[in-house]
Amino acid sequence: xAAPGAQLTLQRPVDPARDHVRGGGGRDTATLLIYGxxxxxxxxxxxxxxxxxxxxxxxxxxYVFRHFPNERAHPGADFAxxxxxxxxxxxxxxxxxxxxxxxxxxxxxxxxxxxxxxLGLDMDRFAADLDDDAVRAHVxxxxxxxxxxxxxxxxxxxxxxxxxDGAWDFYSMLEALERPVGTQVQRTARAFxxxxxxxxxxxxxxAAAALVIANTSLASIYRTIVDTPxxxxxxxxxxxxxxxxxxxxxxxxxxxxxVGLEIRRDMTAGALxxxxxxxxxxxxxxGGTLAPAAIYLALNRGPTAPGWSAPTSTGIAFALGILALxxxxxPTGLKVFVAALAVVDDIVSMLILAVFYxxxxxxxxxxxxxxxxxxxxxxxxxxxxAGWPYLVVTVALWLSLHAAGVNAALAGVVLAIFLPTRPxxxxxxxxxxxxxxxxxxxxxxxxxxKEAKREVRAxxxxxxxxxxxxxxxxxxxxxxxASARLLSPADRVERAVAPWAAYVILPLFAFSATGVPLDVDxxxxxxxxxxxGVVLGLVLGKPLGIGLAALAAVQAKVAIMPxxxxxxxxxxxxxxxxxxxxxxx
Length: 585
What we know:
Elements: E1 20-23, E2 30-36, H1 41-57, E3 61-67, H2 77-88, H3 93-102, H4 109-118, H5 123-130, H6 133-148, E4 156-159, E5 162-164, H7 170-178, H8 181-193, H9 198-213, H10 219-226, E6 229-232, E7 239-242, H11 243-269, H12 275-299, H13 316-325, H14 332-356, H15 366-381, H16 388-404, H17 411-418, H18 427-454, H19 470-485, H20 489-513, H21 527-555
Helix pairs in contact: 2-3, 2-4, 2-5, 2-6, 9-13, 9-20, 11-14, 11-17, 11-20, 12-14, 12-21, 13-14, 15-16, 16-17, 18-19
């Protein structure tokens, strides 16, 4: 088990001079590392899978064991780990390792010493090594390395230095170790995604590629692709947008959904829980609108003055992308502030469009949009947890916003507000549900094996597989229900959309929006002033307006800066607690 935000890549590589390695040495060897506890029943269950894997792969598998004793959950676990290390001083680590796992519970200190004596160890040396500070340090260092990797329980598995979160059955782990093409691609993608700045690098690469292409001989092809109309439906009621517009209004809706969910979470249990912290992005967005407009109007009077709104709005995707480049060094409060600022900035842009450019704004279409919002509220209050009703209403809201002349991507923010959450469930009942389902499956499989041995059948087809029995469907439904209850609908949507937003949606948006030709004809009257007004408004006015608004609001004690909530000190919870189930905890 690994904690949220755990490191996906092993922080300390396998060192054969220090780590305990069994097997390996063959061509294209795979490495399987386990943080284990000799008293953990889950580790004991997994040991049988490990034996099958070692037998199946031979010298193509290197099995590495690191200690992660959970003394609080399993009194005596630390003693067992030190005993294995003491046996290692006499070159018998793996023999002691196997003996400790083969011994049925309870496993007391007397049983451990008996196992050492059975192995023929020098007992005087063994007793001295048990209390040796270097042996204690080795076990403690393994556990410290595990905590650095986010390990909170046992067993936690790493395959080829990447944390393995797949199923623990033999065939799933064998597939991960044998590295078929699909598994290798998935592992490489996961390793890249674990880099803090990976999404930002993809975003910036897409923007740079578009900028280069738009200023080369490929510019005509680029413009043809971006400006190609893509329609849905037929006839007068069809919806037709260019590829660029679909990226900025369609796909970006999912990004705004993620931003909205993050803001919502921080307003309930994060950096924006204080109302004064939540109002700061609103005031800063207003300041970030007025200052660029003032700079533009100071340079542009007469016919070019109506362009004052151009420097007032900026894209949130790039701001968050730059923040991602600095990874964890950027305070969480800053990221939340920038995300909230961007959402308010887009709402202000919508109001500017409605008030100052009414020819492009059709207020009547906001009526069905309001109806869609009311429907979302009704779904939320009625505790509807299925996703498809919210999807249908969000599509209706998107269409109404688009028809009204508003950036329809804001429908994602509205959906984020009304996606239902649920109180965290108690673990006990879910544990009982999952344990009952798995125990029933195990019992059915064991009974099928016994029956097959007792009876001689004419054909293997006479024995139906367990997966065709009703017990299999019943168990799978219960396991799915227990798993699904751990996440609210909002959490499930966020987990499903986040990778697509980071590595597909935002790069496509960046590629379609930043392909701007750098050759500008300055001979037209007023062009130089327009460019200067927009550039100074964005580069100077926007940050100046946001900064001054924040300073004034904080000094006047109207608002406060968002703060990163302090994290509770981490304590490794037991991998298991007392349980009535015979198969584990």
